[in-house]
Amino acid sequence: GTSVLSWVLFGLVTGMIILLLLLYLRERRRSIDYLIRRTEHIAGQNEEILEKASELKDLRIDLEKNIKQQKKLRKKIKKKK
């Protein structure tokens, strides 16, 4: 009587432990996949930021050129007067 019951309990406990281990490993893998996706997303945002920074740098260079040209034009206009 008791030996059968103890075997059944042992089997149930072992089954539960295996089930818990499987669930734990699955969740852990999911969380690692989630972290990888977040990292890729952040990396993508960084790429966008770098592109925007490059565009701003180009704009600044263009503006500096325009300002220099305007200064030259003003000097020419003043000389003509």
Question: What features would you describe in this structure?
Answer:
The protein has 81 residues and is mainly alpha-helical. The chain contains 1 helix and no strands. It has one helix at residues 2-80. The longest helix is centred in the middle third of the chain and has 79 residues, at 2-80. 0% of the residues are buried. The model has no long low-confidence stretch (mean pLDDT 92).
Kindly report the average pLDDT value: 92
What is the β-strand count?
0
Poorly predicted runs of 5 or more residues: none
The percent of residues in helical segments reads over 70%
Strand fraction band?
under 5%
Radius of gyration: 35 Å
- Count of separate DSSP helical elements: 1
Please tell me what the overall shape is.
Answer: rod-shaped
Structural class: mainly alpha
End-to-end separation in angstroms reads 119 Å
The biggest beta sheet, please? none
SSE string: H
Summarize the structure.
The chain is an all-alpha fold and 81 residues long. 98% of the residues lie in helices and 0% in strands. It starts with a helix and ends with a helix.
Keywords:
81 residues, mainly alpha, 0% strand
Itemize the secondary structure elements and their pairings:
Layout: H1 2-80
